Predict the 3D structure of the following.
Amino acid sequence: MSSSVTSFSIRNRVLYVLDIFAVVISYLMTILLIKNIFQALPFFFENILFIVISTAIFSVFLLFGKVYTTMWVYAGARDYLRLGTWLLAASISVMVCGLLLREHFTVFFKLEAVATLFSCACIILLRFMVRGLNRLNRSYHSANTNKARILIAGAGEAANILLREVESNSNMHYSIVGIADDDPQKKNRIICGARVLGSIADITKLTEKYDIEQILIAIPSLSPHRKREILEICSSTECKVKIIPGYESLVDGKVDMKDVRNVQIEDLLGREPVVLDNKEISDYITGKVIFVTGGGGSIGSELCRQIMKFHPEKLVIIDIYENNAYDIQMELNHLYPDNKPDVIIASVRDVGRLETIFEKYKPYIVFHAAAHKHVPLMEDSPSEAVKNNVFGTYNVAKCADKYGVRRFVMISTDKAVNPTNVMGATKRICEMIVQCMQQISKTEFVAVRFGNVLGSNGSVIPLFKRQIEAGGPVTVTHRDITRFFMTIPEAAQLVLQAASYANGGEIFVLDMGESVKIYDLAVNLIKLSGYKPNVDIKIEFTGLRPGEKLYEELLMNEEGLKNTKHSKIFIGQPIFGDISLLKKDLAMLESALETNDDEYIKDTIAKVVPTYARKRTQAKQAVS
């Protein structure tokens, strides 16, 4: 016998004995209702054999129904339904037995009916008593242990499941104080022992009145806009806030306590989910060989995830950084064991290596995401930005042209618009390369431009989280600095959709929504982590970094905008296409690299990109 079966047998042995006792007592109580006390005991013993038979029938049915393998402390409606079914079967059997043995005993139908009803009630009542005593015991221990006082926002099915899980697991360090819900019919109702105390708008008052420490938002069906509204209410409290993700993020749409997570910055932005035309994307990916350069990076790896959903013939991931490349390889190998991607360690600077790879695979589409993207680092190493971003892009573009690639999609950035830093200026040159190559190649060359992506390598959000975990301070470069943000999956999905609209030469501009103040993000993250800004966690202003803007732009004035079929994707008109001038500019950049003079290289970049606005204190003599 297994240890678990033994444990159940020991745990339910007392309950088994009590059930037998309950049946016997039920008959005695029924007889006392019908006979006076002087007649009751003789009548009881006169029919003791029938009472024993009835008790045995109940015992056999309950054992056969396996009700003693149930942990009644944690039993649900299904367990009680099963118990009721077997009790009904036992009661009917007792009544039939009474009819068959009537001539041998003095019991009568009315007594049998009432006694069996009492027996069923007592057996069920015993289970509720076990549950109630356990709850009292848990409440006593909870009162003497440090458990977080929780307010649940939402009184729907998700809250119901969570309440049951907290109730059944004494190891959870939660004490559910109450619920907030906007349905007026639910106010003051009790759900699994927790009372609906008020509406969502009352959360601030409720947290103060009931000394709440944490708020748990349990409404998976929330729209992004409503989620943002609720989070703004929660951020006005001093409580730590946790949330259940939307049903689309849950496995099989089922809620579990392990799904509860900290609030992420994506929740605060309230961006609507991207709706894609899967057929258009499938038409150019399914059954095709697809390259992703920089496939181990933030955007590159998400592009790989999204591409694999459309079943390419082969996905080839190219990256120079082996650790990231290995991570995405292992992830996709697990998800797609029958169509594992090929991962190649190579640098976009090495044109010979690129040609070998292109010759071998003959890709249909190239997504070029490889680039140096860290603004301050590129200010200190402009030569590396030029080598990797500019000439790396040119190398991949030339290979795409030489080996007959159908479409080349370059990932650009809002920092390429009127750039104030080396990184942005080099990405603008990459856009110029794309527009020039379109003039001389059968390959469709396009670029997709968007702003910051949340959670990407070097993003400010992970930095803020680490600083909060360390107790602060949280560092913001300027009180008024703003940025556009979108999620990594959103950006990758829109890149795939934009690529389906390509005719060649376009710069696709993604709708980034409203710009967000970085200072406000820092304040909200601190609040939603359960701290007071500038009290528990200080916010310090460090000053703009070299090349950093107060705000970003997504479109150059000359470009204009055209709509596409997708509401979040626009097209900027080509404004550069002189391939001979581009070649002269690239030759000038090559000569500048040979000097290893950072300032001279920056001056040369400024010559190539007239909109590159360098600080005059940094500039040396202009390139002649």
Observations:
- The chain is about 50% helix and 15% strand.
- Residues 438 and 485 are 30 Å apart (CA to CA).
- The chain has a mean pLDDT of 82.
- The two ends are 91 Å apart (CA to CA).
